[in-house]
Amino acid sequence: MKIPSLPTFPPGFLWGASASAFQTEGAARADGKGPSGWDAFAAQPGRIKDGGDGTRGTGFYERYREDVALLAGLGAGAFRFSVSWPRVVPDGTGAVNAAGLDFYDRLVDDLCAHGITPAPTLYHWDTPLALEERGGWLDRDTAYRFADYAGIVAERLGDRVPMWITINEPAEVTLLGYALGEHAPGKKMLFDALPAAHHQLLAHGLAVRALRAAGASDIGIAVSHTPVWPAGDSEEDRFGAELYDTVSNWLFADPLLTGAYPDENFAALMPGPVAEDLEIISTPLDWYGVNYYNPTLVGAPAPQALDSFAGFDIPSELPFGIREIEGYDRTDFGWPVVPDGLREMLIQLESRYGDRLPPLYITENGCSYDGIEDPRRIAFLDGHLRSLHTAMSEGVDVRGYFTWSLTDNFEWIEGNAQRFGLVHVDYETMRRTPKDSYHWYREVIRGSKS
Ligand code: BGC
Hints:
alpha/beta; 8-stranded parallel barrel; 15 helices; binds beta-D-glucopyranose
């Protein structure tokens, strides 16, 4: 194994790993947990490519102590996990499930006992099914119920949790869940899905306020970002790329950071008292989280190129087309490996928002590769950390890096087929085996402290 000689990160830089409840916990109905929209969706035949149903995760609910020990062995400063909303409030509203809160209480205590900062995400896609059946994020009320739940979690864990994340990737929930129907809740509404974006943003703003009212601080959000590369110079290619850039990057970041939608046409499509909502949505953040995986090459709709984007079907009614990026290595998922895309994205965020950009964290970055000997994951992470360091030396204020993911886990519609972990999980026995990249990351963390 090559020992890293990475550039030096600033003292106090936070090194972490990320995970989420639905992808790891299992115990789908244990101890009073309510069903989520993802439980229902994954149970439908044909939804998950390997025939799984997402009910087992990695057994984290029972085995969390093993994973905390692995984090401690890594020397990680923080663990980004998610709290399952239906484990805490089984129907999404009303009665609180004490046993569910007790689980997160134990997890937080164990992390603290090992000197690891607990960094919970309050929503990583597992909407309580009862709310999903009433419209989920298409229903404005879901935003208020989310804020109630955020307050409940903060009241219980706030004395030990120094860092909070409201929502993970509202763009993916909107696009994959409500516009294309490839993720829960499986709705294919194309641009009619936009209210789901607005209501998640509103839920975020209301939750920031509820968290602060309960005494919480250091609050951020995890937003997916991808540099969009135009596929060509024609007017149609440029239009397609710009539109995709707007919906995937700025439709979420602009309201959060500037209090306005990127374009009046989008604002006009949003439900509710939009101006008042934008005030809530842009409640100042303590930090902003960036999830980065790869750039996206986009042009005019081109039916022959539209079949598949990371395994998702992109309908030709949409006014843009996603193309294959050629000339780069690919992960097992087929995603291009473009480390400099991280620097490119961070510089774009810095130049678009300037003083309005709070300090950043990389809340997700990682890759899917098979095998316990995983030199390609090491190369991926090495390249992305160098790219991050370059962005920081060019003036972007980044306070920490969370790799996705601590262990292999349930990769949504891919089932168990795509392995993003630093730690291998045998899905028969749930046995954990650290990969070469785990040992490598431990040396990176150790090296940065010396
Ligand atoms: C999500 C994770 C997912 C990862 C890899 C992100 O979009 O937040 O839940 O596992 O990408 O696909």
